[in-house]
Amino acid sequence: MARPASEHPTELELQILKILWDKSPLTVRDIRDALAEEGRDLAHTTVITTLGTMVNKRQLKRLDPEQGKAFRFAPRLEQEEVSRRMLGDLVDRVFDGSAEAVMLSLFDVSELSEDEVKHLRRLFNRKIREQQQ
């Protein structure tokens, strides 16, 4: 039985989106090479199939070739939009919507430097000021 379609990118789709957010548009070969550099050496046909699926899911747009015969691909989705939706889903499903539980869990699993703690404190203080206005 097939897994139900997710509204979020799969692991491979997210890896491809990250490559394209960094540099786009790219051809299938460029994307395949970038995946291989990251330790994910896939068959050319696998990359083509995945890109086609991503176009159908409206995650990517396929651009006509400028010169030669290779199509190029570019993201339709913004990185911040995907991050926000995926994090929101995680917060809802795993932490029952509790931002506090997420933060406490992050502090438990992450080693923070003194500078990172100071930066987070400034962000928290800014958020508090915004909510008081």
Describe what you observe in this structure:
This protein is mainly alpha-helical and 133 residues long. The protein folds into two domains: 11-75, Arc Repressor Mutant, subunit A; 79-132, no CATH class. It is 62% helix and 8% strand. It is built from six helices and three strands. The chain has helices at residues 11-22, 28-37, 44-56, 79-95, 99-109, 114-132; strands spanning 26-27, 60-63, 72-75. It has a three-stranded antiparallel beta sheet with strand order 1-3-2. Strand 2 and strand 3 form a beta hairpin. Helix 2 crosses helix 3. It starts with 10 loop residues before the first helix and ends with a helix.
Keywords for this entry:
Arc Repressor Mutant, subunit A, three-stranded antiparallel β-sheet, mainly alpha, 6 helices, 133 residues
CATH class placement of the largest domain: Mainly Alpha
Span of the ends, CA to CA: 52 Å
Q: What are the secondary-structure elements, in order, as H or E?
A: HEHHEEHHH
Secondary structure tally: strands? 3
Q: How many strands, what sense, and barrel or not for the largest sheet?
A: 3 strands, antiparallel
Give the name of the CATH superfamily of the largest domain: Winged helix-like DNA-binding domain superfamily/Winged helix DNA-binding domain
Across the major sheet, the strand order is 1-3-2
Average pLDDT, to the nearest integer? 91
Number of domains: 2
CATH architecture of the largest domain: Orthogonal Bundle
Q: How many alpha or pi helices? A: 6
Helix content: 55-70%
| Residue share in β-strands | 5-15%
Shape: elongated
CATH topology of the largest domain: Arc Repressor Mutant, subunit A
- Helical/strand content category: mainly alpha
CA-atom Rg in angstroms: 19 Å
Q: Poorly predicted ranges (pLDDT <50, ≥5 residues)?
A: none
